[in-house]
Write a structure and sequence with these properties.
Layout lengths: L1 H14 L3 H9 L5 H25 L22 H10 L5 H33 L18 H10 L8
């Protein structure tokens, strides 16, 4: 996953640079320490100028990616792409951001498990339309411990762990 992220960043960097700028970057470490800081700023200025020029000459062009864009439904449905995105962001996150990303990942995983449990309850209601002894389908789980609920969940194939 990290290799793909590095490729994406490298592709972005190479899109907004020229061979001349790359040559200047190669020269930078060979300059005297007092000259390096000014030269580094000069290189960044050249990159900015080139980027602005490139974007002006290619308005509206998709710069990168396969067309999948973030939207309000990005966190709904199949969350594989969302989880991939979060995984790609982790190596570049500080401790606080990393914690937030992990919390989002956990919330998505818990929500998915909750949906699977609701589907299982609906399936049980269809199998036993006369009920399980009450009007509330959750009544059949009322006396069970978390371990008991977990074993039922695993029995129906919900115990697959995602790492």
């Amino acid at each position: 996953m990290e290799e793909q992220t590095t490729k994406t960043i490298t592709a972005f960097d190479s899109l907004f640079t020229t061979n001349r700028i790359q040559l200047l970057k190669i020269l930078l470490p060979r300059l005297a320490p007092r000259q390096q800081s000014c030269f580094a700023v000069y290189i960044k200025l050249l990159e900015l100028q080139y980027t602005l020029s490139f974007l002006r000459s290619h308005p509206g062009m998709r710069l990168m990616g396969d067309g999948r864009q973030l939207s309000a439904d990005f966190f709904q449905g199949d969350n594989a792409e969302t989880m991939d995105l979060l995984d790609e962001m982790l190596p570049f996150s500080g401790p606080e951001e990393r914690s937030k990303i992990e919390n989002i990942r956990n919330m998505i995983a818990n929500f998915k498990r909750m949906q699977e449990m609701m589907e299982m309850i609906q399936m049980l209601q269809e199998l036993f339309p006369e009920g399980m002894g009450g009007d509330n389908p959750m009544d059949m789980f009322s006396g069970m411990s978390d371990a008991g609920l977990s074993s039922i969940f695993e029995m129906f194939g919900g115990g697959d762990k995602q790492e």
